[in-house]
Amino acid sequence: MGRIVRPTIVANIPGEKSATIRSRAYERIMRRRVYLPILDRRVVLQAAAAAVLTSLAGCKKPTPDEPDRPDARTSGGGGDGGSGTGDAATTPLGPGLQHCDGKVCLPLVDDANAALRTVDGSRVFEVDGRTFIIVRVASTTFVTLSAICTHQSCFVQWAPTANDLVCPCHGARFATNGVVTMGPASLPLATFTTMYDAASETVTVALL
Question: Are 147 and 153 in contact (CB under 8 A)?
Fold first, then answer.
């Protein structure tokens, strides 16, 4: 018996319908696309100019009202009246001591300076963390020296019988002008200009 051959049916889509299908497919594809906004050239230039101005503002030189150091207006070391050593004219002084024209005055009427009312009297005092010794070597003559021995930093003492200063630690001795008269110290004591006003009974020392 022979085979039965069935004819193949081919669907033929009219041209107008095929175009409609393609148009709908294109619309579906276009809906899935992401559109980026088109930047206007003026917008780009304005943004670039703003960035340049911001950069220049960050590099401007500080004015006197804008210190370039964090500590320029604080109480750090130095400055305009903070803590620390500060101005010598405003540094607090101990009893019997006064500021006077950049120097330190010791009025003998003050009880803290009672030892200086007589010859061979002496007093140790401190200013700005430094220690000094002042001695009345004559009725109108006073000497001021560093009270720290140059050997091993002990405090020297006035020895009126020998008319000099002696270190109790190792026996070094110094004349009233600071010169070493006996070892083991080898360096002199620092001395400071000292003046006496008999009228006001005030001793003035230049500690600079």
Answer: no
